[in-house]
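Re: beginner question about structure tokens

> Can someone show what the tokenized structure looks like for a real chain? I only ever see the sequence side.

Sure, here's an example I had lying around. Input first:
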Amino acid sequence: MLGLRRWATRTAHLASLAGICGFAQQAPAAGYEGSPQVAEFVAEMTRDYGFAGEQLVNLFREVERKQSILDAISRPAEKVKTWAEYRPIFITDRRINQGVEFWKQHEAALARAEKEYGVPAQVIVAIIGVETSYGANTGSYRVIDALSTLGFDYPPRADFFRKELKQFLLLAREQQVDPLTLKGSYAGAMGMPQFMPSSFRAYAVDFDGDGHINIWNDPDDAIGSVASYFKRHGWVTGEAVVSVAQISGEQAEEGLTVGLDPVKTIGELRAMGWSSHEAVRDDVSVIAFRLDGEAGPEYWLGLPNFYVITRYNRSAMYAMAVHQLSDLIVQARGTK
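And the corresponding structure tokens:
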């Protein structure tokens, strides 16, 4: 990855060849040179964060608007999958075995992360496994193209992606990397754990102590960063993630949580006909949810650590996939 000094040298060279023409020119179809939105954005970054306007002008000359990104984010949502359809995507023998191998290769870093942050090694492994198949699929779009395309040409969430673009440029400056070199998903999620830039700046850590945070191809930093994220979001060491539930009575279905915030306590749910397989205190707030599995409806209570997983990705099925993958990796590891 190129440092900012090389970025500045290169952009200065480009400026000397092409001239500094500001944003008065007509914007080419594939880029952002001449865009009034970009001009406003550059002025804000210059005013609020001390960036050199000329350097950003030259940077955005190389940024590309990607129609494929707009197509991907605007594509009508596929049919909502049931748990019976969703689970086999992530819970496979291949992913389990690769998780065992990943753990073996990075055992020291995982053990240290578990000790320092209190997050089980298997949960860290499962997150990286679900997100990117242990780093095999981290995305092929330049992050700056993704965030610029969505920040300037996708009105429904433009504000969100422009904020992430700001965070990305701050990240690049802090880490002394060329923003044109970093790649990620079509939505700008980055590296082995698929952090958005704001999450990177808030939670990513230099776990191997080399002076840089590299979640793209440094597994130690990716491992430490996932553990840091979970700890900062309230992971409780040694506590369970979910409990199987049974329901009875006419009010039971009314106990299902709307959304993913734990708004009912175990005591309140018991009064509505819910019971938990494991002993859980009545005052614990939980997520009560149903999954449509292969054998029919499954009822679950998501405990506080389950809620933490949903903070990584706001989906009960995602959190359950991570949890079950982590358990299966532990089991497979014990047999090898």
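Each token stands for a local structural state, so reading them left to right follows the chain. The first strand starts at residue 141 and ends at 142.
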